[in-house]
Amino acid sequence: MEKTVTIVSGLPRSGTSMMMQVLEAGGIPALKDDIRVADEDNPKGYYEFERVKQIAQDQAWLEDAKGRVVKMVSALLLQLPSTHRYQVVFMRRKMEEILASQKQMLVRKGEAPSPVSDDKMAALFRKHLDQVEKWVAEQSNVQVLYVHYNEVLAEPRPQMDKINRFLGGTLDVDKMVSVVDRTLYRQRDAKPQREVK
């Protein structure tokens, strides 16, 4: 794991901050700067590292990321250089919940909602995820584990066991399970819905 960069990725509001907290509890130091502070939408913190957003121009920080875990939104994965090896824990979540959570965040910030309809936004997101999944599959230096946010909340331990195996089998699974907080699951949909691919 020391020679590999561990990345938590997914769409915004797909559970990436929760997974960062889980992996940190399990024993992987998080690469973060705390510039974006915790708020009502993410009361336990965003676990972000601002330099990640400049990955196309600034890749020097990847050396510091070896042996750590860093959060990266899915769109940025395609800009990862082939000079490193990556283990990606990619978060999936019901699309309806992602859209609802993004809307709620805009409301709390006092920003206008997107003029794009939910159906169109969902279609754009699914197309994007298909592109990312295809790209990842073609990269010999990238390993990926797809994890469903909804399944983590429903039954944390089997998911944590799976993540532990993927990342080498040395993590503290009990601590990982203990930080899963179902009280933060606010945009749940009672109807059976198709999950994000």
Task: Summarize the structure in words.
The protein has 197 residues and is α/β, with parallel strands linked by helices. It has a single domain (4-181), classed as P-loop containing nucleotide triphosphate hydrolases (Rossmann fold), CATH 3.40.50. The protein is built from 7 helices and 4 strands; from the N terminus they run βααββααβααα. It has a 4-stranded parallel sheet. The protein is globular, with a radius of gyration of 16 Å.
Which structural traits does this protein have?
single chain, 197 residues, alpha/beta, Rossmann fold, 7 helices, 4 strands, globular, disordered C terminus
Question: Main β-sheet, in a few words?
Answer: 4 strands, parallel
CATH architectural grouping: 3-Layer(aba) Sandwich
How many runs of DSSP E, i.e. beta strands? 4
CATH superfamily: P-loop containing nucleotide triphosphate hydrolases
Mean pLDDT: 87
Sheet with the most strands: spatial strand order: 2-1-3-4
CATH level-3 fold name = Rossmann fold
SS strand fraction: 5-15%
Total separate domains: 1
Task: Work out the helicity level.
Answer: 25-40%
The first-to-last residue Cα distance is 27 Å
Assign the CATH class.
Alpha Beta
- Apparent shape: globular
Low-confidence stretches: 186-197
Q: Summarize the helix and strand pattern as letters.
A: EHHEEHHEHHH
Tally of DSSP helical segments: 7
Cα gyration radius (Å) = 16 Å
What is the structural class?
alpha/beta
